[in-house]
Each structure stands twice: as C-alpha cells, then as structure tokens.
C-alpha cells in the first residue's frame, strides 16, 4: 500500500500531539518525518519556570523519548532547522543540503520570543525566556546573589521572576502597564497577584517603560523612560511571543500575524497545514497549549479521513503564579461588556469574578480557590442560561443539574 509522505516541521508540543493522535486516527497511513530545530525532542514548555527554579529536573520536562518515535515509525530529525519550503517541487530543505520530499506538509513552527526595539537589547547578559537553552543561559548568568531585572509582567515574565527568586537572585520585575497580566486579570485580581509575588521577595515596578539596556561589554543596568536606572547583572526579556511564520512567508503562503488557516487547518497552498502557535485562525493567533492541542486533534482526524472542523478555542488559562492558583477564562476585564459579580475574602486570599451577559456566563477569573474553573469553562462553552441558579453561581456547581432542580421545584 502506498503511503503518503508527511513532513512535520517543528517538534514542539503541538507537533507531538499531532503525532500521538495520528497513531489513533490514521495508523500506518503516512510515512512521517519530523524536523525539530532544538536538539531535544518535544518537551513540556509549561514546566520551564519550575525547571529554572530547580523544582523539577530536565527529565521531568520530557514528553516522549526517542524510542517512542521509532516505535511509531516516525523519523525524527533534531537540532536541524528547516530553511526553505519549495511548494512546486514539494520539498522541505533542512540546513543547506538535506531535502525532504512531501505529499502533505504540516507547519508547527511555534513562536519566537519578542525582543523590545530598545538600545542595548543585543548585549551579552540580555536573555529571552522561551526554551531549554534559555533556562541554561539564565542559570549560568545568575549565580546566587546576582541582580536580575525581568522585563514583562505577563505570565512568562512572572514565571521567570519566580524562578530567579527561587535561585537566590535579587529580582526586579518590570511591567509597562498599570497592572500585571492585564489580559487575564481584572484590577483586584492583579493586586492580589502582585502581593503574592512581592511576598516571594520580588520587587515589582508597574508603569515602568524600558528605555534602554546600559552596558559596555555586557548588560549592566536597565534604564527606564522616567530616568531611573536599575543595576543588573542579568536582564531577562519576557514581553511576549510572535508566531514563527517566516518560513511560510518565504514559501509564498498567506501570512498575516501568523500562518493563515481555515477551519480545516489548511493554509493557502494545497496539502499544506499549520497548527499551534504559528497558525492564525479567523484572525486570532492563540499562544496557549490547549488551543494548539485542539488544532492538532482536529487535523489528525482530518488526515484520518474524518470531516472534522476547528471552530476556534475558548481562551482559558489555569496556572500558579508564585504559588497562588489562578484561573481565567473568557471576558474578565472589560466591565462595559458584561455585568460583574464578585466575591472577595482577603483573609484567605480568595477572589472570584464572574461576568454575565444576556443571562449567560461569558467570563470568570478565580484566585486562590480555582476548583470550579473547569465548570465555569463548560458553562461558557455551552452558552447555558444561568438565570435559574444565578444566586448560587458564585459558590460553584449546584448539587443537582439545573434541569433537575427546576423539575423538582415545579
């Protein structure tokens, strides 16, 4: 039986999920080759901050060892970046000499860390926080007692600051906005998270706009737009990521912010697909693991012959910020768009905010106690009316399904 040649460019979490699901939905249907730029096979990026803090070992981050790929009949190439895609010849160029012919191509190239366009960003001692190599570089540049400045008060920046503080490094976290994690948290939740971070010994400066990195042969200080100068032996830049779409752009695929895909995860070229952080679907480039997994699941089913479709993802984040559980989903910050219901218990560090619009839940942010997060997520996905149990909504799942409760009341 002729097997189509499938080349997957990228060996991150989205790529691995696709391979795992192909084994279920299209076993033995493809001759698969995977090309990864990093030397290690796919690993769990979510654990990078824990790895930096030495809370876990590198072995704990591994998802599948090389023998797994062999057992699946997958050729795995690591430590070699794909440098070009020839759509006419149907080939992927790896390095300068190797070419891989394909019948089907999946781009799972992930995203690249953003460096601010500021003077001094290319100095030694200025490091992004994105992969295993970054963790090793940060550890090498941050002996106990060193001074570090982390630029970026989103999730990545907070995780980097937490990891550095755990290493015994004097750490300052800078954020240009008025509150931390402004995309996921409202003002009150952000205040709680700031307090939790500061309790770990991390200095937090908000509305702090980085003007330049000062230094002669390496980074020595961060200069802010208001004139303040913060001495630093190490500067970690964690201001966000952008889809790694340059390879696709050079190949002639449609690229906006990311590689444009439709509901079948197909790009503008026949037989070429994209999944994960490099992909842009209906104008949105998701930067979350769950959405990448959902895309990989749909594509695996399609490659197996099903008429599966991807309709987009509900943006949810479940994480621990400096040891404090946080869950955020849907609309949480813009109170002009929905009606907020809030609960706060400062003594326990618990905070909940639910957003209601047209009798339905459209957003939730939880700090401290996040056990009901998945249920709130399900309510938002389903669009189920919550008016009949609105008074109890803040306190979690009702003991009886709403439909049953209504019948009993009648």
Layout of helices and strands:
Blueprint: E1 4-9, H1 13-25, E2 30-35, H2 48-52, H3 58-61, H4 66-71, E3 75-77, E4 82-86, E5 91-94, E6 98-101, E7 104-107, E8 111-113, E9 126-128, H5 132-141, E10 147-151, H6 155-166, E11 170-174, H7 187-198, E12 203-205, E13 210-214, E14 221-224, E15 229-231, E16 234-237, E17 241-243, H8 246-251, E18 259-261, E19 272-274, E20 279-281, H9 289-303, E21 316-321, E22 324-330, E23 339-345, E24 350-357, E25 360-367, H10 373-382, H11 390-393, H12 402-409
Give a quick summary of the entry:
The protein is of the alpha/beta class. The protein has helices spanning 13-25, 48-52, 58-61, 66-71, 132-141, 155-166, 187-198, 246-251, 289-303, 373-382, 390-393, 402-409, and strands at 4-9, 30-35, 75-77, 82-86, 91-94, 98-101, 104-107, 111-113, 126-128, 147-151, 170-174, 203-205, 210-214, 221-224, 229-231, 234-237, 241-243, 259-261, 272-274, 279-281, 316-321, 324-330, 339-345, 350-357, 360-367. The strands form seven sheets. A five-stranded parallel sheet has the order 3-2-1-7-19. Strands 9-16-10-11-12 form a five-stranded parallel sheet.
